[in-house]
Amino acid sequence: MELTRRDALVALAALGAGSAAVGQRRDPAPDSETVTRTLVAVAEVLYPERVDVTESFVTTYVRGRSHVRSDFEAALADAVVVLDRRGRGTHDRPFADLGPDRRRAVIRRLGVDRVRANPDGTDAQRVRYFVVHELLYALYASPVGGRLLGIENPPGYPGGRAAYQRGPGGT
Q1: What is the extent of the structural domain holding 61?
Q2: Which residue of 18, 28, 77, 98 is surrounded by the most CB atoms within 10 Å?
Q3: Is the separation of the CB atoms in 42 and 131 below 8 Å?
Q4: What pLDDT shows up at residue 40?
Q5: Angle 32-46/72-91 helices, nearest 10 degrees?
Q6: How far apart are CA 92 and CA 85, in angstroms?
Q7: Other C-beta atoms within 10 Å of 123: how many?
Q8: Which residues contact 149 (CB under 8 A, 6 or more apart)?
Q9: Which residue numbers in the chain have pLDDT < 50?
Q10: Which residues contact 168 (CB under 8 A, 6 or more apart)?
Q11: Radius of gyration over every alpha carbon of the chain, rounded to an integer in angstroms
Q12: Count of the separate structural domains present in the chain
């Protein structure tokens, strides 16, 4: 299942961002390419194997999310710096250039899987809040993520009358 730009727009609609925010152009962050590459790399190890992560999905979601919360882009860039610093410190490469197993190891060593998300907390808490939770929300608020969970119409996604009239399981 491939995640597309449209899936990102649906996830943003669930946040209340809408497509108008995505259509507005802002100057990209100085290292927006690094941020995007790193988020795609995290998503590749975070999402189920059946999901094909696309750069357009991540870029569209992040750009739209930045319009909902003005400090989001800077906080996200800070969290990416943490991942890159750990990747370089352990494997002499930026996080996005590591293989999937090494990416998982960096995330685990950082402790992201053992902390509560906190936007003002430790490095691990901020990575969990701004990277892991945002990527998971983007996936599961999209139609592709909803289908993975058996929810044809995730909140915010208009499914039409036919889907509304069917019972659970599509019957």
Answers
A1: 5-170
A2: 98
A3: yes
A4: 95
A5: 70
A6: 9
A7: 18
A8: 140
A9: 18-30
A10: none
A11: 17
A12: 1
